[in-house]
């Protein structure tokens, strides 16, 4: 990911500067970006590949067609899977007052995508012309009403034993241990695991476990792994069972999802 020049960084950090500053991003040879934060809000728009944002609240997955929103001051790190390109859009603190106060992944409307692409041609940090300012306001309006994609978030529990279970499943999504076996391993009752996991993440343990598998699936698919290999790597007994899970969560098959990724990179 190329680093902005010093004058761009200064512009990003001053809240009285232009509403939007858009900078192209590329995964290149840098697979991860260390934990950091910005005084401005940050909107990621991914053209191809997969970008995963990590915050203290969990992980947020951004395949093509989605956008990731990071509010000002939020500590986060980033990780790319496969050749990834797109844009990073920095939003002024003033405009962020109208936008969500928590990180999220949203569906990228055609209008928002078009404005972001246009904004990459603007001189970073320069005052916006009246037409540019109007387009920037349209982008903020679109982001305000953008539909959140809940299937692409993976909140992390904070309680020590629950966090240990979550980390174990993220490290090995094919882990076939039952809820009871995992609870015993972590030193917590199955009933407490079920109840507190829902309280801390907002989803049932079974649902969270499926989304952890989906997260790994997207990463492997973005890196070029065949669908069959991905299905068996995640512990599915058949490719059809994996495809059914994928479609239930994202409304599309793995092949269709990857076809969209390829078409956006042409």
Automatic annotation (TrEMBL):
<dbReference type="InterPro" id="IPR009057">
    <property type="entry name" value="Homeodomain-like_sf"/>
</dbReference>
<keyword id="KW-0804">Transcription</keyword>
<dbReference type="Pfam" id="PF02311">
    <property type="entry name" value="AraC_binding"/>
</dbReference>
<dbReference type="InterPro" id="IPR011051">
    <property type="entry name" value="RmlC_Cupin_sf"/>
</dbReference>
<dbReference type="InterPro" id="IPR003313">
    <property type="entry name" value="AraC-bd"/>
</dbReference>
<keyword id="KW-0238">DNA-binding</keyword>
<feature type="domain" description="HTH araC/xylS-type">
    <location>
        <begin position="160"/>
        <end position="260"/>
    </location>
</feature>
<dbReference type="InterPro" id="IPR014710">
    <property type="entry name" value="RmlC-like_jellyroll"/>
</dbReference>
<keyword id="KW-0805">Transcription regulation</keyword>
<dbReference type="InterPro" id="IPR018060">
    <property type="entry name" value="HTH_AraC"/>
</dbReference>
<dbReference type="Pfam" id="PF12833">
    <property type="entry name" value="HTH_18"/>
</dbReference>
<dbReference type="InterPro" id="IPR018062">
    <property type="entry name" value="HTH_AraC-typ_CS"/>
</dbReference>
<protein>
    <submittedName>
        <fullName>Helix-turn-helix transcriptional regulator</fullName>
    </submittedName>
</protein>
